[in-house]
Amino acid sequence: MKHIRKLLKSPKDGSPSRGSPSRPETPWPNNSVRGSTSRAGSPVAVSALVSSPLVPVPSSPHIEPAQTKPTGTSKNNWKNLDAFLEALKRSSAFSPLVSAIEDLSWFIRTYESVSTTRTEYDALRIKLEGLFTNLRVHFVSNTPPAITSSITNLCEAIQIELREVYGTKDRNVISRYLQAEQDLDKIVGCYRRIEDHLERVMMNASLNTWRIVDGQASDAKLDRLKPSMSACYDSAQANVVQRRQCAAKTREKVISDLEAWKNKREGEKVYWVNGMAGTGKTTIATTLCSTLDERYELGASFFCTRSLPECRDVKLILPTIAYQLARFSQPFRGALLQVLERDTDVHTKLPQVQLRRMILEPLQSVARSLPNNMVVVIDALDECEDGNEVGQILQVLLENASAIPIKFLVSSRPEYHIRQKIREAKLESKLVLHDLDEKMVEADIATYLRAELAELSVPVTEEQISTLVQRAGALFIYAATAIRYIRGGDLLDRLDSILKASSTGQGTSNQTKEIDLLYEIVLKSAFNEGLEEGERNRMQLVLHTVVCAQEPLTVCALAGLLNLTSARVNAALKPLWSILRVSNSDVEDRVSTLHASFPDYMLNSSRSGNFACDANAHNATLAKLCFERIERHIPQFNICNLPSSYLFDTEVLVLMKMSRGMCL
Predict the structure, then answer these.
(1) Is 361 within the bounds of a domain?
(2) Mean pLDDT of all residues in 446-468
């Protein structure tokens, strides 16, 4: 024990290591490598890990182990570990890896100081020392590897493995635990898994040396994929479509189930979250993405939405995912660039070709460099335009899922063309949101309502909360729309109008009757009897135009198309803010429907009654207005002032900026 106390009081550098238990009474911290701002085995053993790799694995030059200082033990069996750690400390860019290796070093030395059963452990030590030698080669080279999200994930995984064994025990408790040699198999198993993580770091470092030196040239090749950056879960457009995470203390069981699927080594690679409109699919997917991103486990995300053209084009899904994976993993980036070198137009091919060439083959070639818990999220697949192509992508993904070394989470409504592909694949990993335990869903909705109404300082009884919860059923959108409606006027009066409303139940199904009733309340309030006929007609014209439009329109565009002033358009929109989305951008205000369930309601006359929008009739009206607009203006030659008519659109760098500046 004296030896242990001496070891604990005298760390190698004279001070506690960051991220390790630092002293008695100090708990083992929930260490995180997130603080780093960087994003981005022997050679023979490494090459054997990849089956026919797209990216060749280089051999490591010979390097002598560095001379290191004594570590406080009579015999230093970890000279290569010490040398690797010293090399890492020379650059702040390697801080995530420094933290993980420091933690590992401390526990290794503590274990060695008290352990007597060493046969299997010594064999493991020799293998690890070989890995540390080769890792040092790459990290002291002229082109050290970038600390990408993939490497950071692996660093975090090392620390998690250590915490799995030692929990939150302080150093004295850990030493006694090791001295008793309890759960020796558990400790050795932990180190074997850490060896696997280090081999993956080694693969990232090895394949890094093959990256194209000209970063701009490689970026240009990736840009040719034309990814939809708006489709990322945290893009600037997320604010435009008002995407949000789950309210605090809600959907915890759902997120926990998804985490369990993600962490399960053996199991299905695709998980389907489905539910009718308004059950919270996108909110759950956003929350999961944020959690995964915080842990460097999110490989890519694509959030489909009818509101944005670049987010409803099914042809952009696979190129965008490939692009994001290339940002996540340097080895994958190198493999994908080789594919693009051979076939620059691969992103224009059939879905099955795209998936195989741009995602499946590159992933397989660098599989041993990737984290085990990497996930790609595709949300609201049903909101893409071409249902046939959606079915093709899903079919190809499901057919090849077992060969893909990462996991995919897909969410959608249970549309027939999607449901059929899931059934054919006999997929068992799925979650039906509208079939969840009623009490659990009701509790989540009640939690959300209490928090939102408290923020508005609305005095509300538990009986009133219970009434709202019963009317919401499984639809979170009911609760969200109710809050938006209450917030838009006299709080108590609007709450009272929702509570006192009753539905006739005519022309509506049990699943939609409550949300239909809520939309009816909002529309009756907006189109109240105090409106002049002209105001009523303008509001209806603006509302039906937004419902029928294929993409969000600016206030300027609505005014120009409908022969109204911007002031009158804004006046017509104001009473409709509970059901329409108006993005308050510094550049422009874009208008769209708040949720996909509202156009469904408006375009179905049996549900919306007198408020219904006749799509055929209104589209004819819009076509007529467009022709009238054209007749009033003489087309201007070269309206964009382009330098040449021979340029492709992709070669006009300011084309997007020009189009944004136009009302129509």
Answers:
(1) yes
(2) 93
